[in-house]
């Protein structure tokens, strides 16, 4: 290494040894100078931001962790502990006592293993779908196609398992059932609707347009309400069909209408030349769609599609209106327990964390997919 | 045109036959189903809420269980259908539930216009106001211009409007969906006043960190007789359920409790009123489509009215409600059940 500089020595041009950059432009100091203190405005903003963090973060942490009470059988016990210490904090004992209710809803205790097994089955089924380097992906996909039926059987029961009526479903499990079914069901339906709307067959196009515009023109809450109470007036007497099933159908239809428009946007972004090239190759309609148009259109639509999915997932909280208990519903009902009344902040923070984790996972996956499919034009 | 006609006719037929089905024997439907569908709230402290283990508990819930015990012989054969204030009557009329026990005020328009049949009163309530002490208000008459947290779709909403109009005052409504939401909004200062039934106010205030910083104003501005309801047009089912309610109230008056009801049922005693309820005299159960032991099952499952009250909302619970109007007529209240005879 010739990095050492000899004092007093003069160097020929071009032979001066490489020097490390000045200490003030590298490392932490360099980063701080560059990003936080580069101009007067920047300095002011930095100070303001630091002040805001100082005001918000320590009290939040105190409330969330340091002053929080994790053990106790009622709110009064939590309060007693906090009064003794003279602090105010969260009473997580509440969430602890109610955790199973938050996760499983009213699912019978002895049968909850079925929910757990279903959950891991779902994860396993998702791996080959979401990750294209899965070994033996083709065979795994067959498993994924069968998994929904196995999960349905596990959750509902019958055929040797204790039947569990769907009104016992609740909490996080209910959100997952509605969210996953809605997502899985609405994607193919949405693509079909988008293709139908772009079709040259007038009757088909008409049906798709009417369907999409009708569903988009009605709030989800109305559809759910119709599903839960109005349907009974129209169905022939004696036919009751499961409330959860009605909700699943409504949610799927609702999301598919939105998805159709997202996918249609993707379809319109494909240059006409692509379709013409496919035609000139002699590809049939479905072949050209499957091989040429859709792969490109869907790739463009990924952010919009995931957007719709996240929206659908969060909209599942609306089922409280028709008396089904998603995590927020469980939380609200828990607050009516005289033992725990008034701890609403804890409930909403807990539910927010759950939704944040689920939604951020979906968002990150969509980013990963976009990067992977990025072909650089 | 013909298509439309056909459609209209078939829709009408379907509608007619649906309502036909609804009137034909809810009691038989319940027995055949082996489960009572009971419409309750999505959560009102003391009246209906799931406990830590997810089991429904509360004052209204116990009446549901008593009904199930009387009709089906098992207090656990109840499916609870949680509803909000806005969806409760639609749910009942659409057949999602067989009976509604959901702190519902009996009113003329609900009875006549919404086609409900009310069975009686299980709790006498009245609407009150709660304000922070710091406001310095001592009477509801001083609330001119106040912002008021009020639950939508309830009689309290209408009472509030009536009261302020009658006293020439104005107010700013802050509408909320549930009691719990009202609590949060009130504590956050988004409204000056929280109004709901006095029982609800007491329980809400009891849950505050500092209950003494809030006062419940002395004015009770409405009558709120809360009671169960069934769909109109099925008198047999209304009779069955009405007498379950009556017999629970009368049991307290006669001193029949969950502890001694079996004893009364095993052997006829000297008091004919007790004998009739205990099934050792007459055949009163048959009159309402049940067997002799119907009342015994109901009482041994959840206890008499007084036991239900004390267990869920009485003075020894966090709600701490006194019997007040809801004491038996013999104890200075207005609880006066028609006799089972």
Shape of chain A: flat
| Structural category of chain A | mainly alpha
Strand content of chain A: under 5%
| Strand neighbour order, sheet with most strands of chain B | 10-9-11-8-12
Oligomer: heterodimer
What's the story with the biggest beta sheet of chain B? 5 strands, mixed
Helical fraction of chain B: 40-55%
What is the tally of helical segments of chain A? 14
Fill in the CATH topology of the domain at 98-107 and 164-373 in chain A.
MetI-like fold
User: Count of DSSP E strands of chain A?
Assistant: 0
Low-confidence stretches of chain B: 11-23
Radius of gyration of chain A: 28 Å
Overall spatial form of chain B: globular
Radius of gyration of chain B, CA atoms, in whole angstroms: 22 Å
What is the tally of beta strands of chain B?
14
* Low-confidence regions of chain A: none
Bin the strand percentage of chain B.
Answer: 15-25%
Assigned CATH class of the domain at 98-107 and 164-373 in chain A: Mainly Alpha
Question: CATH topology of the largest domain in chain B, anyone?
Answer: D-Maltodextrin-Binding Protein, domain 2
Calculate the terminal CA-CA distance of chain B, rounded to whole Å.
Answer: 60 Å
Task: Tell me briefly what this model is.
The complex is a heterodimer of chains A (377) and B (341). Chain A has 377 residues and is an all-alpha fold. In chain A, 69% of the residues lie in helices and 0% in strands.
Task: Describe this protein's structure.
The complex is a heterodimer of chains A (377) and B (341). By secondary structure, chain A is mainly alpha-helical. Helices cover 69% and strands 0% of the residues of chain A. Chain A has helices at residues 27-35, 40-66, 75-85, 92-104, 112-130, 137-156, 171-197, 202-216, 220-234, 243-268, 272-280, 285-315, 327-335, 344-373. In chain B, strands 10-9-11-8-12 form a 5-stranded mixed β-sheet, with helices on both faces. In chain B, strands 4-1-5 form a 3-stranded parallel β-sheet. A two-stranded antiparallel ribbon of chain B has the order 2-3. Chain B has helices spanning 2-23, 26-33, 59-72, 88-93, 108-112, 155-166, 179-187, 198-206, 235-254, 261-266, 272-278, 284-287, 294-302, 305-312, and strands at 36-41, 49-50, 56-57, 78-83, 99-100, 116-118, 123-125, 127-132, 146-151, 171-176, 193-197, 214-216, 224-226, 229-231. With 341 residues, chain B is α/β, with parallel strands linked by helices. Chain B contains 14 helices and 14 strands. The A-B interface holds A 75, 79, 97-98, 100-101, 104-106, 109, 165, 167, 170, 225, 228-230, 232-238, 243, 320-323, 325, 329-330, 332-339, 341-342, 344 and B 11, 14-15, 17-18, 20-21, 41-46, 48-54, 79, 81-84, 87, 90-91, 94-96, 178-180, 183-184, 203-204, 206-209, 317-319.
